[in-house]
Design goal:
Helix content: over 70%
Number of domains: 1
CATH topology: Growth Hormone, Chain: A
CATH class: Mainly Alpha
Mean pLDDT: 83
Distance between the termini: 14 Å
Largest sheet: 2 strands, antiparallel
Low-confidence stretches: 1-25
Oligomer: single chain
Order of helices and strands: HHHHHEEHHHHHHHHHHHHHHHHHHHH
Strand order of the largest sheet: 1-2
Length: about 525
Amino acid sequence: MTAEDIKTDANHVEATHEPVVSAENPNITFRDVWENRRVLGFCFIIFMLPVNFGYEASTVGNLLAVIPFMEQFGEVVDGTLLVSAKDQQILNAATTVGLFVSAFATGFISDIIGRKKSIGLAGVLCIAGVIVQYFSHTIATLFGGKLLGTFGFGLGHSLGPVFVAEMAPNKLRGTCLILVNTMIVIGQWLNSLVVYACSDRTTDMAWRIPIITQVIPPCLLLLGLTILPESPSWLLIRGRTEDARKSYLRFNGPDFDADTAVAVAALAIRKEQEETAGGGSWMQCFKGPDGRRTLIICMVYIAQQFIGVNFVSGYLTYYFRLAGVKNALGVAQAAYAIQLFGNICSWPLVDRIGRRPMIVGGSITITAGLLIIGGISTVNNKAALNATVSFMVIWGFLYQMTLGATAYSVGGETPSMQLRQKTYAINIMAATAVSCMVLQVMPYLINSDELNLGGKICFIFFAFSVPMCVYLYYCLPEMKGRNYAEIQEMFDKRIPARQFKDYVCNVQDEVIAKRIEMNDMKTAEV
């Protein structure tokens, strides 16, 4: 193949779904979605464990509204049946520790055995943890099962976005990545639905059934692994170029321009190795352009915690019950359904208007919403209570449509090829640490036998979310439609965040040269 042939091919790659250099990024259509249905199918397989992530995130808050669970693990305080703040802290700590440790371990495990086998291991551990929880009779045993299960789905949660980001076509990469949040919201809603369906039971099966149903997503994942390809970048770093090409074709279909995709990935890896003198250590994630990438991802995910998602999503049902809302579990069904609809609304938007408008604009809007909810909650009457509940539901819709969904797109596409898993793991650990702080303090702020702040807790989140909005406005770059060689170039040249959108990259000739080099190597082997 001549240089002219390759250049011509590169100029027409958009027709085969993978642009070399994105001079423009046309809006996605239903035709694009249909043509990439294979890609979306693999995304749903890879993102099965985030269903457990969402399910688990809502478990404690929802089960605190289930009487048999409260009778098993709670105590009566001033005539009210409560699970003590200390025991809530223990259960929340299991999720936090499991996620933190799994994020750290993911970088080592996936580097050794690959992404595919790591996700398989995650599924097995998740199933084991759920079984332990099902047979629990004490807080300690429940803690152990949650810790094991969380470590399992934590591996999958850390690997999923990285896995998909490597193989999804540029045009649909944002949509593919925000499916992570879709699966998390589905998990939250499914948990609420199962708890609601079992709410009429008077035995301990009222809470054991919602726990055991968590084995379904990892079982589906293990079945899907039989057709799932391995990570191309993991294969390329190990010199398995032809296997990486086959992996791209398996994931994207036979019409996909795998040669160009391999050339772009190989070029990005080479540039990263040159920039870091061949190093791929954990410390490199904090140095130079890689340090900037790590900070951007961490701040986006930490913004989710500071803006109050643990209150609105995790403690929604519990707050409804404490606030005296009739049929708290039933109201929660509508709230989670609206959040899911908000997430679905983000699908066409993330690759139409871009990551930056979705995250910055969304964060400012929901920060203002916190001030409104907090202000209404200062009034103690029935009308104010109804207004608070309504605005919490609206807040959840806006959050899931903007920051909640789009953060996963930034998390998957921002790290360098060589350090992607380590960078994302650091992000998960940082976000989990902040989440731990929030979850440990939350029971004391909400419980009726403690500060009993109710909706006024939004004032606290407002104070933390304002500086996050400022940071995101000045420091979050736009990476819509860019391939990894372009992203690598912009970070290496230290382009200011607000100039990413209009910056013209110069990597096309390098990609063409890389394809010529790879073609010559293939010819020589033959």
